[in-house]
Amino acid sequence: MRLTPATELEHRCKRLQEEMAVAGLDAVIVMQNADLFYFTGTIQSGNLYVPREGQPIYMVRRDAGRARMESGLKDVVPFASMKDVPRIVAEYGYLEPKRIVWSWMSCR
Predict the structure, then answer these.
(1) Using the 8-state DSSP alphabet, how is residue 85 labeled?
(2) How far apart are CA 26 and CA 52, in angstroms?
(3) I want to staple 60 with a disulfide (CB 3.0 to 4.6 A). Which of 14, 51, 67, 96 is the partner?
(4) Buried b (16+ CB within 10 A) or exposed e, 64-85
(5) Is the pLDDT of residue 104 over 80?
(6) Quick one: pLDDT at residue 15?
(7) What is the per-residue pLDDT for 106?
């Protein structure tokens, strides 16, 4: 069951991407639960990879199926550890970021 409409999540991610462009960031990885809920509409154990341009990727450790049901984001994938992030990002066609922040809200 989705509590946050997909259009609202898209809007939030687009605003983040606009701020990233101004800050000169290539990507952000959202890790904190409150931030995950804000950008994904769910709180599953995982991380949200937001490229400066393109679709975010929600990487979920445990229940990717539940995350897909609860989140309106297009790309929700399972992953085991942070070591998987470069492979997953590459599979989606994104280049390795030169400037990345590990939690956007804590950087403001």
Answers:
(1) H
(2) 5
(3) 67
(4) beebbebbbbebbbebeeeebb
(5) no
(6) 96
(7) 46
Q: Are 76 and 68 in contact (CB under 8 A)?
A: yes
Neighbours of 19 (CB within 10 A): 15
Distance (Å) of CA 94 to CA 32, 41, 46, 80, 97? 23, 23, 19, 20, 8
∠ CA 18-8-76, rounded to 5°: 85
Q: What is the pLDDT of residues 10-69, one digit of tens each?
A: 999 999 999 999 999 999 999 999 999 999 999 889 999 999 999 999 999 988 889 999
Residues β-bridged to residue 76: 58
CA contacts within 13 A on the Cβ side of 73: 32
The secondary element (H helix, E strand) that includes residue 33 is helix 33-40
Kindly provide the b/e burial profile for residues 30-63, where b requires at least 16 CB atoms within 10 angstroms of the residue's own CB.
Answer: bbeeebbbbbbbbbbebbbbbbbeeebbbbbeee
